[in-house]
Amino acid sequence: MSEERTLLIVKPDAMQRGLAGQIISRFEQRGFYIVGCKLMQITQELAAQHYGEHKDKPFYAGLVKFMTSGPVIALVVEGPRVVETARTMMGKTFAYDAQPGTIRGDYGASKGFNLIHGSDSSASAKREVELFFKPEEILEWTPANRGWLFNDEDLGATSE
Ligand code: IDP
Ligand code: MG
User: Fold this and answer.
1) In testing the pocket of ligand 1, which one of 50, 54, 63 has its CB within 8 Å of the most ligand atoms?
2) I need a surface site. Which of 40, 50, 134, 151 has the fewest CB within 10 A?
3) Which residues contact 104 (CB under 8 A, 6 or more apart)?
4) Is the CB of 65 under 6 A from ligand 1?
5) pLDDT in tens, 27-47
6) Which of 91, 85, 86 has its CA nearest to residue 104?
7) What atom in ligand 1 is closest to the CA of residue 120?
8) Catalytic positions, written as ranges
């Protein structure tokens, strides 16, 4: 059974609106656990590295301005299949398009102000975690209720 990690960012709109606690809480409630966490303001350089894939898109300048505009909370969250599950929990990219029940669909109605970032694949997660966190900033631990959060036999039987 393989644990996964993903990078989440509580974006500046969620911070300014006082929604960080509610958003982070959803991942805890789902059974995922925080192994890295920092309050920070993203620099131009970090934004450019993080969103390099979008540098030729028309929304890129606005995206960088938004993401560097104020504090964010960057998190590394761990658990089985967390990369894919976190994306499901976030909802579609444009908040106005996201299903109710998802983070974007419950809190947002904008296009780009969509509250949260989550890595979109295992490869992206590895790259993004390394971009935002030094190894010593990530804490190895297992929550006391781990055995009741995930059934390791089921996970073993169904994982590729
Ligand atoms: P994702 O965050 O769901 O992975 P991406 O396509 O990777 O979505 O886009 C990165 C971020 O850029 C989005 O979360 C959103 O904040 C912003 N963005 C994407 N497309 C647009 C757009 O067409 N207009 C404004 N902002 C956009
Ligand atoms: Mg993306």
Assistant:
1) 63
2) 134
3) 90, 91, 92, 93, 94, 95, 98, 114, 115, 116
4) no
5) 999 999 999 999 999 999 999
6) 91
7) 4
8) 117
Q: For each of the domains in the chain, give its residue range(s) and CATH number, in order of start.
A: 3-87+113-135 (3.30.70.141)
pLDDT digits (tens, 9 = 90+) for 59-98: 999 999 999 999 999 999 999 999 999 999 999 999 999 9
- C-alpha angle with apex 133: 83 to 124, nearest 5 degrees? 35
- Residues 6+ positions from 143 with CB-CB distance below 8 Å: 33, 149
Q: Could you give the CA distance from residue 47 to residue 113 in angstroms, rounded to a whole number?
A: 15
Between the CA of 124 and the centroid of ligand 1 the distance, in Å, is 15
112 in ligand 1 pocket by Cβ < 6 Å? yes
Residues in the chain: 160
